[in-house]
Model the fold of this input.
Amino acid sequence: MADTKKRTDPQSGYCAETKTFHSLRPSVPLPPESQPLSFPSFALSLLRHQPPSPSTPAFIFPSSISKSLSLSFSDFLSLSNSLSLSLRVRLRLSKGDVAFLLSPLRLEIPVLSFSLLQIGVVLSPSNPLSSPSEISRQIRLSRPTIAFATSSTAASLPPDLPVVLIDSDHFQSMFIRAGLKDPPPPIEEIRQSDTAAILFSSGTTGRSKAAAIPHRSFISMVAGFQPERAEVKMVLAPLFHTMGLILCLGGVALGETTVMAPAGRFEVGTVAAAVAEHGVTVLAVAPPVLVALERGAAEGIVGGLESLQRIIVGGAPLSRQAAERFVRRFRHVWIQQGYGSTEAGGIAVMMREDEWENYESVGKIAKNLEAKIVDPVTGEVLGVGQQGELWLRGPFIMKGYINDDDANASTFTSDSWLKTGDLCRFDENGYLYIVDRIKELIKYKAYQIPPMELELILLSLPQITDAAVIPYPHEEAGEIPMAYVVKRPGCHIDEATIMDFVARQVAPYKKIRRVAFVDSIPKSPTGKVLRRELVSHAISASASKL
Done:
């Protein structure tokens, strides 16, 4: 390791001998990998080191959702201990069991998630809006022992799977310590390499896959969060997504107050109201929310967000124009862009406060991670400034996909590098730039076109509020770039103007050759464009005209 450090360029983090990029971040000590340790045990050790007041809220449901609900740190710890005991004694759950979670966000969910992880049960949360076929596939992959659902979601589960209703008296009684005739069985030793959660990939380029995330991944990420602890953090990412789960449960470890917001329910005005009501200092959102906040301020719907200091943005690309408009509007707030994925453990790359004005980049790789840039066609390992597939290796990375040997073989190398599927490059200062998903590149004749590049150009037009570019089948070219565009209310812009605007800024083969206007762009809960839906829509619309 010492020799590698000597050979590493201190500016870019690149080692020419191993063709590997190393982190430039300050060292983050991690517990020895061989030490038995669950994520909740690690979280509680950090909490004891810097304990909040027992009455400090651990979690809050803002009043702009319904009536205001909160859970103090004292109550959170007491309830999670009681529930852990009930899960073991009353439900007979133990290490290695898998608990499928299908529920809208409720105040009990963080307690249940923490309690399951405490006793070594694998947490497998799913989007409650998933279709029956999606849920069926997820259950086949994760093979749960039990499911936790609500009265509104339980019907989507198979009849032979035992279900506990979170909104039932039976579940609520589990928070009460009942008298035990015999002492409970001891909790089995949990290793850092044991699976903590099975999380489902977004499936934007195909069927969703089940990623096994070890306890050490959560431990490593939260250890890296310590220098940027927030007083009050509001998280709009859902808890069935890696980013939402790690930010919420990581907040417990860091003694933060986490304001919770159900995905898809908040309007921009209620986001701003919750920030003001609870003195939110850090807001974690997908790019569309940041854009909506700036637009809301311009229209007088959103106030100054005086308490806000930092806004974490991830899950999808943020255009430079949108970032600049936001910081002009809210000069006291800095934008912390990041990059991660379910497979890479959530947040593998992140901006720091002295770096944030480099809008095109998502930051520098986290401590304890290594990266490579590899030509996806030839397999050649590339260097600084060269564009290729991003490979990552380190403690953040998933163990692999559950029950999917083919996917694992195509995703991991024999020496444990994760192939992210993202086309990226590093610059001479170690900043990472995301170009696009390799599988989403448009194949025009002999060229490959990144849709994201064209989308960012489209979003620089003031008349456009959102846009997505897809591959449209073409007999001669194979595929051509087609744009779906959402116009700003009251603005008039036509197809020819849009195509001409883009054509002036790109090589001829990258020109947009079709445009369709829509009211909204379909996206995942984290803001990723669902291109497959748009491709299906474009093809079916064309077929209907024949």
About this structure: The two ends are 64 Å apart (CA to CA).
